[in-house]
Amino acid sequence: MRAEAKLGLALLLTPLLLWLSLLIIIPHINMLFIALRERVAVATYETSPANFLTFFREPLYMWTFVRTALMSVMATVITLVIAFPVSYYIAKIAKGRRKSGLFLLCLVPFWVSELVRTFGWMILLRETGVVSNVLQYLGLVQGPVEMLYNDAAIMVGLVYTSMLFMVVPLVTTMESLDDAVIEAGYDLGGSGPSILREIIIPHATPGIVSGSIVVFMLSLGNYLTPTMLGGKESLWFTELIYSQFIVRFNWELGAAFGFMLLILSSVIVWGMLRLTGQTLEKTMG
Amino acid sequence: MVDQKNLKIAATAVAFSVAALAQTASADTLRLLTWGGYAPADVVELFEKEFDHTVKVTKSNNEEMVAKLRATGGGGFDLAQPSQDRIAGPQAEFGIYKPMDLSKIDGGQFITSMLEATKANTTVDGDIYGVPHVWGTSGLVVDTAKAPSVQDYTDLCSDAVAGKVSYRLKRPTLIGFAFSMGLDPFAAYGDEAAYADIMGQVEAKLIDCKANVKTYWGGGDELMGLVRSGEVVASMAWDTGGWKLNADNADITFVAPAAGALGWIDTFVLPAKGKADDAAYDWINFVMQPEIAAMITAAAGNFTASQGADAFASDELKARYQASFSPAAVDNIKWYPPVPAGLETIEGGVLDRVKAAK
Fold it and tell me: Do B347 and B313 share a structural domain?
C-alpha cells in the first residue's frame, strides 16, 4: 500500500520535475559554466570570474541595471495605483453581466500579441501620429509634438502591458472580502479613507504583493516595449543581454549578465518583502 | 467489430502518411538561412520544379545567422548567406562552416573579380569557405529638398539637420564615421590597440552628435516609416532603402558619402553540419544564372555577382544606381575586409557607452 502511494506521488511529480530540471535547472547550470569562461585567444577559454568583474567594473552596466530596476519599481507602483480602484469596482460594486463584461475588457488587449500592442502605441504617440494630430486639430499646440522615444513612453507601454497581471490577483482577493465587514466598518463610525486603510487594504495585501511581484518581474524582463518605445538614452538591461548574445557573439558576458539579473531581481523582491513586513508564505497562504 | 475495422483503417492511414512524410524528408530538403528578398517565391518555385528538392527559407541577418549556427555548432541549415566579412572570424572562433568544393560550382557564372575577392577573404587555413551572391553598399539616405547639405556621415551632426537625423547603433555607423573623420579603421583591423584608439575618437564624436539624433533605428521598416513621414530628413541606410523611398518620393534618394560608401558582399556558405550539400550546390548554380539572378535583384533591390545579370535588370533600378554612384563614387567604395575575431568586443563597449550617454 505504501509503495503504491509512493509510486503515485512519484508519477504525479514527474512532469513538474522534468519541467524544472530540463527547462530551468540544467540550462542555468550550463549558463553558469559559460559565464565563468573567459576568452583569452581565438577559440581558447579559461575558467575565471572575469565576466562578473566586468559587470562591476564598468559603471555603465551597473547604472543600466539600477535604471532598469528603478523604472520597473515605478511601473509597478503606477500599475497598482491605477489597478486598485478598477479592481475594487469590478469586485465589489459591479454586479452580474456588467462585472464579467468589465473583466473581459481588461482581457481583450491580451488577445493580440505584445508586438501589435506596442505598434499601436507607436502609431498613437509618434510625431505624425494620432495624438499629435488631434492636439493640433484642436488648436492646443502649434506644430507637431513628439511623444515617442522617451522614458515616459516606456512607462506607458509597461503599465499597459502589465495591467491585467495586477487586476486579476486584486479582484480575486477582494471578492473574498465579505460586504458585511465593510458595512460593519461604517456602522462603527468609520469613514471612507479609514475603512480603506483598516479593512480593504489589509485584506487585499496578498493580492497586492503577488500582483506587484509579477508586474515587477515582467517589467524587469521586458525586452520589446523598452526597445521599441524607448529613445536614444533608454538602455534596458535585457537589451544588453540580447546584444551580448546575438550582436557581439559574447555569450560569456551575456550569460554573466543573465545571472546578475536573476540574482539582483531576487534580492530586490526579497528586500521589498522584508521592507513591507510581508512573507511569501503569507501571500500564498 | 465496426469500431475495430475503423481503427484498422485509421491505423493504416496514419502509417501511410508517416511513410509519406518520411519520404519527403529523405528527398533533399534545402534549409536556406538567408536575407529577406534573396529567395523570392517565384525563384523557389522554378527551382523546385527543375530539381527534386524542396526549399525551406528562414529570413535572418548577419548577427543572427552566426548566433544561430553557433548555438547548434553549425547545424539546422544546409546553406547560409552571411556577409563575406563575417566568415573567417566566426569560422576561426566557432568552426561553424565547412569548406566549399569549388569543382561543384560553375565559376563561369560569377563576375571574376568579385569571386576572387570573396575567395581570398573567406580563406581559413588554406580552405575556401564562401562564394559571392548579392552585393550592395550602405551610405546615406537624404531628403535632398530638406537637407541638401548632407554629403558625408559627419554632416549628420551639423546644426542644419538637428533633431531630424537617425542612424543605427551598429558597427557600420562606427566605420562610416571613422572614415568621415579622416581615419582608416580597416587599416587598423590587425592592431587591437590602434583600433581601440580609433573607436575611442568615434565614440567621442557620436556622443557629441547625440543631441542631433531623433532616434536610433533598429529595422529597415522603422527607418522607412521615419523618412516617409518626414520625421527624419537624413539617415545612414542601405542603398536599396534609399532607392525604394525614391520610387515614392523623388526628393529622397541614396547618397554615396564623400568619405566613401561601405561595400558589402553577401555570400553562400555551407554550415558545418549541413545535410544537403548537393541541393545547396544546385541552388547556388541555379540562382547564379543571369535570368534568375535578375529576378532576385528585382526582389531584393541589390545587384548580384552573376555575370551578365545586369542586362536583365530593370531600367529604373539602373537609373537610380547611376544617379547615386558616379564612377568616382564606385571607385571610392570601401569594401569590408574580414573582421578579425575579438573586435566586436571593442565596438560593443563603444556602442553601449554611446547609447547610455546623455
Answer: no
